[in-house]
């Protein structure tokens, strides 16, 4: 059972998400919060698998809530998916850097929303396709560092290849096909790369790949 915490200051939005999620046999909404501070307290109380958090809220906004969840060792198993009415703005980069595992716009199709919840619950990063495209475009349009940290040098050639493919938005199965290996081996390469680069999840792995210059405009 996937346990979900809803954090949004609009009661109608929360009730809509709850009604929709409660229809699924493998998903349970365990708590609701009207602001980030309440969400943080309920996350510690219920330890949900997923925290669906709105960006703009009173008391404590979504970015700071995400940052505090990511920084709390007791909440390691809580995967934050940010919800917003907006496509892409300055909040995206702050939210992902804070430790969000995904970023979705509220006009997402219902089936895509359910897929996002299940993917995030597995520990994989999930970005709406429109967000992914704009995220990559933003990074490749900016100057990239010419030097890389020592951790990047610890990656094997296959781990580097897997990281590049993750940064291009490929799933584990697609990466396995591209590298001609099994999905389990692909996942192993990715997990080892995340460990070496100290990435919390796949989203941060993508950010680190661009920031370190491992992925360039030519790669994407």
Per-chain topology:
Layout lengths: L1 E6 L3 H11 L5 E7 L2 H11 L3 E5 L7 H10 L7 E6 L5 H9 L3 E4 L4 H12 L4 E2 L1 H12 L9 H4 L3 H11 L4 H8 L3 H15 L4 H10 L9
Parallel strand pairs: 1-2, 1-3, 3-4, 4-5, 5-6
Helix pairs in contact: 2-3, 3-4, 8-10, 8-11, 9-10
Question: Which features does this protein show?
Answer:
220 residues; alpha/beta; 6-stranded parallel β-sheet; 11 helices; 6 strands; 51% helix
Q: Work out the helicity level.
A: 40-55%
Continuous helix count: 11
Shape: globular
Order of helices and strands: EHEHEHEHEHEHHHHHH
Low-confidence stretches: 143-148
What does this entry look like structurally?
By secondary structure, the chain is an alpha/beta fold. The chain has eleven helices and six strands. It has helices at 11-21, 36-46, 62-71, 90-98, 110-121, 129-140, 150-153, 157-167, 172-179, 183-197, 202-211; strands spanning 2-7, 27-33, 50-54, 79-84, 102-105, 126-127. The chain has a six-stranded parallel sheet, with helices on both faces.
Report a brief summary of the structure.
The protein has 220 residues and is α/β, with parallel strands linked by helices.
